[in-house]
Amino acid sequence: MYFNSNIKLMRKRRGRTQDDVAFTLKMKRPTLSGYENGVAQPGIQQLIAYSEYFGISIDTLIKVDLSKLRESDLRQLESGFDVFVKGSKLRVLTTTVDSTNTENIELVPEKAKAGYTRGFADPEFVRELPVFQLPFLSPERKYRTFQISGDSMLPIPDGSWVTGEFVQDWSTLKNGEAGIVLTLDEGIVFKIIENRIGKDGKIGLISLNPLYKPYELAVVEIREIWRFIHYISEELPSGEVSPADLAYTLNQLKEDVALIKDRIVTNQQ
Question: Is 0.70 surpassed by the pTM of this model?
């Protein structure tokens, strides 16, 4: 738990004394001092009071070591963009830098994908990933490269290396954008994204290969999203379309047309 160090950090960042905060929260200063020093444990009412005072969720105050966040993340947190409060704003990312303090592009190869699902927030795990730099990418943004597997995103070949830009605010995702999505259940998937967060709190995931049906995920199931930037592959994308692909696409078109007809008839009634 990081509650004691977090409330002390956030108080100092606001330029407030213990007396100031104690007065506002209607508690005795020695009690507040005990919370900050870790010698006393707050009850639920005190946790709620601190959460409302800082505009930060109880989960964040307890579970996230705020001293490890980048300054830009802390500023977002102080502005009220807490992932547990807003659902889609603040994303805490574990990252690495080179000797010049420039953020690396970490590589997540196929053999590390299962481990990444569990260790994406573990600094020790991320530190062990291979790293590289691409000089034509913006130094102001964070990138990571994942090796994809399977044929669901053909014509992008199996085994390609896909680089994504870290997305903090998922509401900025546009329909039709490609992205790498990390969930604890599905693992790492590379899909076309349909943003339905504002509508029903979900994201639709669509494959380029029509043999794979679209599906949806609730945002609470998602841990990271990386907006597609480019991919690297040793293979040329195939321009051929198999008879099976054509047949599947034709059937999908028939189903879509039938659905549209049904809606038209319903609206006319």
Answer: no
As to burial, measured by CB atoms within 10 angstroms (0-12 exposed, 13-18 middle, 19+ buried), residue 99 is exposed
| Phi, psi of 125, rounded to the nearest 5 degrees | -65, -50
Q: Which residues pair with 178 in a beta bridge?
A: 192
Query: Residue 82: which residues within 8 A CB-CB, separation 6 or more?
Result: 55, 56, 57, 60, 89, 90
Instruction: Per-residue pLDDT tens, the chain, 269 aa: give them.
Output: 899 999 999 999 999 999 999 999 999 999 999 999 999 999 988 998 998 898 888 878 988 888 887 776 677 677 665 654 444 444 557 788 888 888 999 999 999 998 998 888 788 899 999 999 998 999 889 999 999 999 999 889 999 999 999 998 888 899 999 999 998 778 899 999 999 887 888 899 999 998 899 999 888 788 899 999 999 998 876 666 556 665 666 666 667 666 666 666 666 66
Tell me if the bond preceding 155 is cis, omega within 30° of 0. yes
| Residue given tokens 């549209």 in the structure block | 260
Tokens coding 266: 């319903």
Beta-bridged to residue 234, according to DSSP, are: none
- Identify the DSSP state of 157: P
Structural domains of the chain sorted by starting position, each given as residue range(s) with its CATH number in brackets:
3-86 (1.10.260.40), 105-232 (2.10.109.10)
The rounded distance, in Å, linking the Cα atoms of 232 and 237 is 11
Contacts of 137 (CB under 8 A, 6+ apart): 105, 143, 163, 229
The residues facing 268 across adjacent strands are none
